[in-house]
Amino acid sequence: MTTDFPASSRRTEILAGVSTFLATMYIIVVNPAILSQAGLPFSGVLTATVLLSFFCSLMMGLYARNPIVVAPGMGLNAFFTFTAVKGMGVQPEVALGAVFWAGILFLLLSVLNVRSTIVRLIPLPLRYAVSAGIGLFITLIGFENARFIVANPATLVGIARLTDPIVLTFVFGLLLTAILVVRDVPGGIIIGIVLTTLAAWPIGRYWGNASAVTMGQKTLVNFQGIWAAPDFSLLGRLDLVGSLSWSLWPVIFAFAFTDLFDSLSTFVGVAEAGGLQDENGQPRHLNRSLLTDAVATTLAGVFGTSPGTAYIESAVGIAQGGRTGLTAVVAGCCFLPFLFLSPLLSVIPAIATAPALVLVGAFMMKPVTRIDWGRLDDALPAFLALVLIPFSYSITQGLIWGFLSWTVIKLVIGKRQEVPIGLLVVDAFCILALFAER
Q1: How far is the C-alpha of 402 from the C-alpha of 264, rounded, in Å?
Q2: How far apart are CA 163 and CA 133, in angstroms?
Q3: What is the DSSP letter of 148?
Q4: CA nearest 18: which of 275, 341, 348?
Q5: Exposed, middle or buried, 58 (CB in 10 Å: 0-12/13-18/19+)?
Q6: Higher pLDDT, 1 or 398
Q7: Is-contact 13 277, C-beta < 8 A?
Q8: High-pLDDT (> 90) share of the chain, %
Q9: Is the dihedral of CA 83, 84, 87, 88 positive or negative?
């Protein structure tokens, strides 16, 4: 295995790695905030989150050679806490064991090339739609983090009052970052994040930190110190035997299938948007990337956190120009100091990275122009995949319904040749995933 990277693009890759880290670092605080509600110690989950993000992002960069960050997945941590532990009464240590066995199942699927086979079965219109749908999803996350889009009991969602200092700070950061990007300023996204952070002091007066934004709260800017010792209490605390009971198999399959489709759709969408394909038009270094994702889920159970997965926010670094594994290596290394410096995360608010997320959504819309909208049997499944990703707040749901609608429509109108046997098998997995998430 070689680890050399093109020298001519090294500066761009480093900037891209820092950009990706700034867009994903919220997980260091948000993941412990969610899993601590399952009875796991906040500090222990924080340490596990940093370790997993560091090691698996390095593996993605050095082994799979892709500019994609790996970290504990949002949604998967909510399933761990609210469905497995609180809903089913599973002990946290047993749930960690279920995460481990889900990772082992992943590894088997990866070694047998089942996952890469599924990727190759995704019709091109669905690939284009998933990329654009992920872009809309990232944009929605950015608007939500900035509290620009808020809940509205009358219309489900609405726009916040522009008199809110947080919203004003976000609008300033969005316009500033957009100008920097349009003018092709090197490191424009990072500059936008830094300047928005600085503007949050005099303009915003206060902001929500990563966990507070997730909880919909507003908190004053405050420093919680600089240094905090790592907590390794969750390392190896998983219950491997108890998690193999028959009653836990639905939980293992839920982790496995949800992570399966989440990672597949992320790889496909990011590859389409960033041009990260091989000579056959498939996502670059797919088998190694999927194996890395499987290792992340397995290690998550060992470290003491919810399953790890590829992050859609990696598109921020790709938009900055990241194209090689060096981007993931740099982003992964940025996680490591926060084993000791986690309180410093309060310095950069979520509204500082929100403009980057919104703009990345625009960058990822280009593949949608490659869909033949005049051919409705292709366009309608693609449309469902595109809109359901942001509307359901789930990449998995968009891909699943894209698959199922494609199959049903093609079979009913007599285009059986466009539904290979392998796709029918994938449809069966989709149906299993739908029930597993319940």
Answers
A1: 13
A2: 31
A3: S
A4: 348
A5: buried
A6: 398
A7: no
A8: 29
A9: positive
Mean predicted lDDT score pLDDT of the chain: 82
- DSSP readout, 59-125? HIIIII--S--EEEPTTHHHIIIIIIITTT---HHHHHHHHHHHHHHHHHHHHTTHHHHHHHHS-HH
Q: Is the pLDDT of residue 1 over 60?
A: no
For residue 158, the cross-strand partners are 150
Smallest CA-to-CA distance from 326 within 14, 70, 2, 7 is with 14
| Helix 114-121, helix 286-303: angle, nearest 10 | 130
Tokens of 108: 């088997």
User: Is 61 within 8 Å of 8 (Cβ atoms)?
Assistant: no
Sketch the domain layout of the chain as residue ranges: 7-215+238-360, 372-437
d(CA 92, CA 35): 9
Average pLDDT over residues 308-337: 89
Q: What is the pLDDT of residues 226-259, one digit of tens each?
A: 777 888 999 999 999 988 888 788 788 778 777 7
- DSSP for 21-77, written as a single string: HHHHTTHHHHHHHHHGGGT--HHHHHHHHHHHHHHHHHHIIIII--S--EEEPTTHH
268 has pLDDT over 80? no
